[in-house]
Predict the structure.
Amino acid sequence: MSIDTPPITPQQYEVLHGGGAEAAEIAKQRLSRRRFLRRSMLAVWGLGTTASVAGALYFMYPNLAGQFGSDLNVGKTTDFPAAKPPNFKVNQAGVFYVQTAKTYMVHLAAGTQFLLSGTGLEDQLTSENFVKGKDGSYWVAVPGPCSV
């Protein structure tokens, strides 16, 4: 440089010589292909995970209002007369198929003989969801055949 020429700024130098620090800074601000692919894969995985969790929660908390699996009113107790097992007749006495519940209602008469007795019988009936009626009879709902 000569004494007569004033010093130039770095920006002027870059303009005169075609790039440099400023061009490198602009290049850093751009989104490279690699960074774009990484971010897009992260977004896809995030959306997939979110959809999976949302779907799992949707199926874990179904709406059972009046549908199979909810509490249903299947009729009065007088609609299901009790009987002992030798006298069972489907939909007439002792065993009744209830279409709305897709189940068999079994109503055992009060004098039904069981192989167990005492607390053993009570524990077994409780574990198998038998309900004792006011008249001493037993009720149980047995799931019917399910078709897909």
Observations:
- The two ends are 91 Å apart (CA to CA).
